[in-house]
Amino acid sequence: MNQSYREEEDWIIALQNGDEKGFEQIYQKYWPKLFSAAYNHTRIRETAQEIVQEVFVSLWVNRSTVTIHTNLQGYLLRAVRNKIYDHFDKQNVRSKYELFVSVQQPNAINFTEQEVIYTELDELVHTEINVLPETTRQVFQLSRFNGFTIPEIADEMQVSVKTVEYHLTKALKHLRLRLSELLFLLATLLVI
Hints:
By secondary structure, this protein is mainly alpha-helical. 84% of the residues lie in helices and 0% in strands. This is RNA polymerase sigma-70 factor. One of its GO terms (molecular function) is DNA binding. Keywords: Sigma factor, Transcription, Transcription regulation.
């Protein structure tokens, strides 16, 4: 068994046992490769960072049940590829929605209403962020608005990587749930 595979095998075992050091080693080793893969497809730095961050959050959250049939790099690259597909699917839905809205209303009214809707959605997003518990809100803002990585947030807030991932996952679940409800309501109102 070669040395790099042995290290990787040890990292996986440490990860599955909830050892943050094992997770950090995986993170440090594979972040650049995963970011490069995501960036090559999206060509947007923030989107690529978000995709990779979601992969690592998922890896940590599911660490006790994760099963890696190939090598760790292959597993992580496949997870990134799936997130990229999800990203483009969401973009496609958004484009169809924008086309639907533009066809439903005259252009002058459409522009004004879209501006109002955008402003209202922006306010709703910030309202939802503000109702998050303080630590969760701070983790989310450092991640999404300041572009910090999970280890950077942990260092900045002087908490563990596991704590950061917990709060980031909590924030994303809350926002996805609330925003999907709001978008559904908005789409319903526009059809009426």
